[in-house]
Amino acid sequence: MTPTPVIDVDRLNLKYGDFHAVKDLSFQVRKGELYALLGTNGAGKTSTLETVEGHRAATSGTVRVFGKNPRDRRAVRHRMGIMLQESGFSPDLTVRESVRLIGKLSQRVDRAERVLSVVDLTHKAGTRVSQLSGGEKRRLDFATAVYGSPELIFLDEPTTGLDIQSRDALWDAVDKLREDGSTIVLTTHYLEEAQQRADRIGLMHTGAFHQEGTVAELTRTLPAVIRFALPAGAPALPLAARREADGGFVVETFTLQKELHALLGWAHANGVELLDLAAGPTRLDDVFRSIGNAD
After folding, report:
1. Contact 213, 223 (CB under 8 A)
2. What's the Cα-to-Cα distance from 171 to each of 44, 119, 136, 246, rounded to whole Å?
3. What are phi and psi of 273, to 5 degrees?
4. Predicted pLDDT at 292
5. DSSP 8-state symbol, 20
6. Is the predicted pLDDT of residue 109 greater than 90, yes or no?
7. Which parts of 130-196 are beta strand (E)?
8. Are 280 and 255 in contact (CB under 8 A)?
9. Angstrom distance (rounded) from CA 242 to CA 256
C-alpha cells in the first residue's frame, strides 16, 4: 500500500485578477524527501509555496498536507516549520525570547538552548534581534523553523547571507533532521545546493512545471559537453565538433563515454595533444538556462 504523501498538490490554479500565476500544477512530496522547488522569476513558485504552507487559498484545485487542508492550522501548523526569506522577529526581543515565542505559537516542544547550540547562537541568547548581523538573523530564522524537529520543514533561500562555515553547519543540521525522518522543501538560487542535495526537483516556468524529476533525469535532457583545443597541423577529427570563436572545439553528445573514448583513441593514435581538455555531464544550471532558450 502506497503511503500518503506529505504534500499532495492536484491541478492547483492561482489567479490574481486576470493574471494566471499558477496553472494546473500537480506534484507530490514523499516522506523523508528533500524536494527542491525552483523557478525563473515570476514562475509562480512563491504563490505555490504560500498555498502549500496554508497562507493563501487556491483559486481551484486541491492541496493536502499530511492529508489535511493546510488552511486548517490546528491540524497541520504544529507539524511544519517555515524558514522565510526575511525574518519577522521583533527587534526588541532577545534571541532566546524569539525562539521560545515561536515554540509557543507553533505548539512544538523543544529547548531553546538546544536549538541555539545547533546554529551556534548560544553566545547570542541574550542579545536583542536588532543587534544581530544579517548572517546571525538567518541562523535565527533556521533555529525557529526547526524548533521541535517538525515533520515538514520549508527552507526558503536558507543560506543567503551565510558564510561557508555557517552554510556547512546548516546543512549538517538538515542532514540530521532527515535522518530523524523530517521532510524538506527547499527553494534556492544556489543551484549547486539543489544539485547536490535534492532527491527530486520541480522546475517551474510561467506558472507550470517546465520539468520535474531527479537531478540525473533533468540533466539527461541536455547533451554533455567536451571542450578542447588542437595544435596546428592536427589531422581531421573523428567526430563532429563545433569550432568556437577562440579556436577551440566543442562536442555536444548524449553518449559522453563513447565520444570521449573515440577522441582519446584518435589523439593517441595520431600523437596529438588535446589542449585544455575538459569533459563533463550537463549541470542543473545548464538546464535552468535552457528554459529561456525554449521560449
Report:
1. no
2. 26, 11, 16, 40
3. -90, 120
4. 62
5. E
6. no
7. 152-156, 183-187
8. no
9. 16
93 contact partners, CB below 8 Å, separation of at least 6: 101, 128, 129
68: its cell numbers: 489535511
pLDDT digits (tens, 9 = 90+) for 129-161: 999 988 889 999 999 999 999 999 999 999 988
Query: Could you say which DSSP state residue 79 is in?
Result: G
Rounded to an integer, what distance in angstroms lies between the CA atom of residue 124 and that of residue 72? 35
Total-model pTM: 0.84
Q: Are 250 and 244 in contact (CB under 8 A)?
A: yes
Q: What is each CA distance from 167 to 84, 162, 164, 259, in whole angstroms?
A: 16, 6, 5, 38
Tell me the residue type at 134: G
Grid cell digits, residue 292: 529561456
**Grid cell digits, residue 221:** 535532457
The answer to whether the CB of 29 falls within 8 A of the CB of 35 is yes
Of residues 151, 27, 25, the one with CA closest to residue 82: 151
